[in-house]
Amino acid sequence: MAGADTDWLERSKALMQHAQQGPRPAWLDTNPHAANAKALALETLKHAPSPQPFAKPKRDQRRHYVLYASTSLGRTGLLNLFEAAAGRDDVLVVFRGIRDGQRVQEFIREIHGLAQTLDAQRVPSIELDPTRFQNAHIQVVPSLTVEEGDRVLAKVEGVTDIAWLEAQLKSRQAPDDRVVDLGVHGDTQAIAELDLIEVMKTRMAGIDWAAKKREAQAHFWQKAELLSLVTARQDRERLIDITVTAPRDVVTPAGQIIVRQGHRINPLSQLPFTQRLVVFDATQPDQVAAAEREGKAVTGRPVTYLITGLERDQGWQAFNALEQRLGQSVFLLTADVRQRFNLEAVPSVVEQDGMHIKVREIAVAGHD
């Protein structure tokens, strides 16, 4: 069956395609405020997440050079170090972290501003990566290493001259793949920045996750999207005919005609809609009472309650009380459901009536 020819048929079935999948229709799962979402919101921050290992940038597997830097070198020292790496794609400048009390964004702006004093085509590659400092056992700056992936081949402290390092390595090779450690050959400084991993761990440990959980719960209903509908002023019933007409013949690749042009199909003939949807505004006591009556009046078919309003200030207390009164889960009306059943006013009841979908609006005493 050609894809274009079956579009109309698929659309005709879309309205009812999941109506039979248990007491809660699958299309309600798109509701971000359904039962699962409620539980998720309540447990959003139940447990403080353990600090995760620092995500290491992908390492260059080629032979390359790493210049270990710190702001303790001062402006002139850093500019000289950047100049040694400028214009080379095989040289990386690395910092360990940020200074005490500093934000990552502030540190990045500081270093970026300094690097921009170089010609735009020669700005070196710069990273924040404490794992490199750990892997190469860097304790002072400047330090220069030769590396391949995670493997450190050679190391020297107090030097930024790559040509000097290469000249030394020509006459000194490490046996058994050990690191060629050339020691200290220039002035060095202590590293001014804290290890970014330790900073992250400390900051995570200082977060009051219980308070975050309470805050998430308290703000949930203030941010929840509630799709309001006008209050029904009179009893009214509307029948929705979901029958579709084939715009053309539907033919298999073998040429067999499955559906002829002009043939009318009602999806309810193959997939009955067994739900009763009760849509109401939970801020109106008379609508809540009407919804409860409509839900309890039906037997032999599942009932789904959808609300268009809730007392936000009472939040979960009001929501839980409503579910307790109705004796089952309650959902929020979504734009998809409102459009699918052409809902205009509340309270409304949606269910199948013969080969149609019937929308019944109920006038209540407390309407505006």
Fold and architecture overview:
- The chain has 368 residues and is α/β, with parallel strands linked by helices.
- It has 2 domains: 3-44 and 222-361, no CATH class; 63-200, Glutaredoxin (3-Layer(aba) Sandwich).
- The chain has 11 helices and 20 strands.
- The protein has a 6-stranded mixed sheet with strand order 3-2-1-5-6-7, sandwiched between helices.
- Strand 1, helix 3 and strand 2 (91-95) form a beta-alpha-beta unit.
- The two termini are 53 Å apart.
Strand content: 15-25%
Give the helix tally.
Answer: 11
Radius of gyration: 34 Å
- What is the percent of helical residues? 25-40%
Mean pLDDT: 82
Number of E strands: 20
**Which stretches are low in confidence, meaning pLDDT under 50 for 5 or more residues running?**
11-54
* Domain module count: 2
Order the strands across the largest sheet as they lie in space: 3-2-1-5-6-7
Main sheet specs: 6 strands, mixed
Structural class: alpha/beta
Distance between the termini: 53 Å
Looking at how many chains there are and whether they match, the oligomeric state comes to single chain
- What is the molecular shape? elongated
Outline the fold blueprint.
Blueprint: H1 3-14, H2 35-42, E1 63-69, H3 74-85, E2 91-95, H4 104-115, E3 125-128, H5 130-136, E4 140-141, E5 143-148, E6 151-157, H6 162-171, E7 180-184, E8 189-190, H7 196-205, H8 209-223, E9 230-231, E10 236-240, E11 244-245, E12 250-251, E13 257-259, E14 264-265, E15 276-281, H9 285-297, E16 303-309, H10 315-326, E17 330-332, H11 335-340, E18 345-346, E19 348-353, E20 356-361
